[in-house]
């Protein structure tokens, strides 16, 4: 038996029984209520809709009189079969596609930054951990969970940060969020967009820049030198927040040296400013051991550390986190006392178990080896096919690198030529902002989501497309 929920209005000039009759008739004609379907009894429907039995009985009587419904003893009211000639043809709504959607075809080779290797995701052990999480107490997994995030998961993250990044912090300082944009949005609300100014590396990640812009912050571009952020420019600025990627600058790939890190921390202490450290892919360093995070040196407690599981595990779980200085914890509590935790408690419990049993660290080691091979394949292919015509930038870490072709200063033209041949490469221009003139013609090549054969074939075809 189906449930009928028409929108009946006693204020309309049309009687209620007629509104109900028209509703059921139209549903039958449109094919939404099919032949043989049992309608609710008069008593059930009158109670469900809060109308009199006489109203329902009169509507049903009209449907019976017109042949849409029949009343069967001990069965109820049954929808009858209509002659096909009398049934209007139901035409599904026409979906209008934009020209962009119509022209989208899967490329032969896609060097997109942000793609990861899904073929090596440890699905078997992830499923095992999820099943164990689902066997937990229902109150823990079927509710919103703790505002800051699952305590067990935050403790695991704190342990991991100490071992892998040299960061000493309490789990109480860690806030779990659903992606780096969402958690940066929370961060923006800890300060005042009316009085605060954020400085950002130029170039820098445009996604985070958009979050600050959407929260109406004044954004100051700070130039990059060969070894990273220009501290001279920063010190002359009016910024009291600065966003940096010190372990692997995005997109240029340089590492902020210890001398500059110390000066940056002194600047923050002196000016009472805060440093936002985005450590987005620190796990994947190929030429040396991972560099300790800036937060590991943060004795003044002025660094807000951002981390994510998107690159090292998968963006699908939507888990990121930040480590707040102690002085901001009370502000966080006051600002967000009425907020609920945005990440699924089941996912948090699963990730907690995944880390607790050591699967996370094993997965990192495995993926570091796999990505190192892919990166070396890409570098070797570029050198083989482009030789001295190409300069490689930012190859020490991460899941992307930049390539600059000699005598090719129109990066948009290179991107278009490649796309016509079925190859997706990307301009790095979007990372630059402010009054800088024309950004360098860098092509961004991500390799995380490609296999080694496709990397080699893609680069070989790029050479043919760009130099034919």
Automatic annotation (TrEMBL):
Keyword ATP-binding: no
Keywords: Aminotransferase, DNA-binding, Pyridoxal phosphate, Transcription, Transcription regulation, Transferase
SMART domains: HTH_GNTR
Domain HTH gntR-type: 14-82
Cofactors required: pyridoxal 5'-phosphate
UniProt record similarity statement: In the C-terminal section; belongs to the class-I pyridoxal-phosphate-dependent aminotransferase family.
Coiled coil: none
Molecular function as annotated in GO: DNA binding; DNA-binding transcription factor activity; pyridoxal phosphate binding; transaminase activity
UniProt cross-references to Pfam families, sorted A to Z: Aminotran_1_2, GntR
InterPro entries found in the cross-reference section: Aminotransferase_I/II_large, HTH_trans_reg/aminotransferase, PyrdxlP-dep_Trfase, PyrdxlP-dep_Trfase_major, Tscrpt_reg_HTH_GntR, WH-like_DNA-bd_sf, WH_DNA-bd_sf
UniProt source species: [Anoxybacillus] calidus
Protein's name according to its UniProt entry: GntR family transcriptional regulator/MocR family aminotransferase
